[in-house]
Amino acid sequence: xTLFALIDCNNFYVSCERIFRPDxxxxxxxxxxxxxGCFISRSNEVKALGIPMGAxxxxxxxxxxxxxxxxxxxxxxxxxxxxxxIMHLISEIVPACEVYSIDEVFVDLTDVDSPKDTAHHIRxxxxxxxxxxxxxxxxxxxxxxxxxxxxxxxxxxYNGVCILEDPQDxxxxxxxxxIKEIWGIGRRLSLRLKxxxxxxxxxxxxxxxxxxxQHFTVVGERLVQELNGLSCLSLEEQPEPKKSIQVSRSFxxxxxxxxxxxxxxxxxxxxxGVKLREQGLKxxxxxxxxxxxxxxxxxxxxxxxVNLPQAVNDDANLIKACGKALEQIFKPNLLYKKAGIMALxxxxxxxxxxxxxxxxxxxxNKTEKLSEALDKINKKYGRGTIHSxxxxxxxxxxxxxxFKSLSYTTSWSELPIVYAx
Amino acid sequence: MNSTQHFEKTLDLxxxxxxxxxxxxxxxxxxxxxxxxxxxxxxxxxxxxxxTPKHKDVVxxxxxxxxxxxxxxxxxxxxxxxxxEQGKTAEFIETPTDNDIEIIxxxxxxxxxxxx
Lengths: 421, 116
Fold this sequence. Notes:
heterodimer, A: four-stranded antiparallel sheet, globular, B: mainly beta, seven-stranded antiparallel sheet, 1 helix, about 5% helix
């Protein structure tokens, strides 16, 4: 039987901010995004105040002042670095793992001797070595791992690790799980399911997969099968996460040359651009990662965070950023197996902010129009009919956030300062 | 062996100073109280969070919501965290009943840059 685990960081951005601010442990802390507009991460204390996710700051200013909430501007360079530390650490414990989003990793525990101990070990190591608290959900399918993770977060009795293996436990859990909490079920789908009387995960499990396929495509069918314990999703195919968008692939043949790797990344960047534009989003922060075959000697993996001076979603700028990042992490003479690009800090394309200094402004209007034109051609004649060819500009970075913490792990001038006395 | 496949690598200080990249922090020291152990203000300490301290290691610790660098001693079954201040010894003592001290990591190297 298959067995998967999902490791999900608790209130990730807030937990990052607390690493070097022990005075903030157990105090209300929140992180803001989009030029300090909205809440994107809240500590449990802030959640208890009733401030919802994504709410605008001005609406809750009185609560912030009244309860002395410490507020940070999002520091994605720092979060990205902490995220890649966590991913690296987990891949050393269980090599069969797949980054799902900035704060979530799926791990294949199928052939692991004692899954429970391993789950606790991962959790304890991430806390000790990186300083981030996590919850681990374990189950026979990835959908169950996600459900188990939800329970581990909700109920303290699990002590951070919830294992759904026993059929009776699973049934009990599914009966109490609202449909909207199931992986891959968005607001629209959950409304449609409710209209036909499907309210809990248990209701959905009982549905005939063929009926699901007819009404909700193959995606719906797989979901029902996963809820019945039949693993349909491999480590590499999962629904799109909400917090970040990524494109990654394993190569059919190992790649050694810089130029070939860069060309692959450029095609992923193009794909990412399409995804961003389809959803009307732009990004200011990218993580680019590469790894060699984990089953071969001398396993190497590296990632690089790129901060863009301005939010973009056009192919040219995404490709340039990839090339620049790859130069930082590429090592010659290795057999690369996989590469990926992830976009963090997703902003609505309409609300993007220009940076203060004009020379930073990436020539966006022209390239946006170009990307739109390319999208149209590719839609008509098939993906990849026409694509961009180049890489390489100087990327600069300007701070435009009021309450940003220091870049403790990525800037020589901002290292934590510690006393002995 | 194909000679074009062989590359002489350049020396990289990371290999010498960092064992576990994902568990390593750099911190700056701010005072003189560990100078008798060769640690001076503005020195860079490389801290490995995955290590458990041994007797006489320099450790980064958290105590009452603050972070400190201290010398770690084991004595009569107790754990001491020591610094020297103006000739006097400052120490935290950890006992089974008072264990609010959380060890974040062990310093594995010190980098002292000369003012040039």
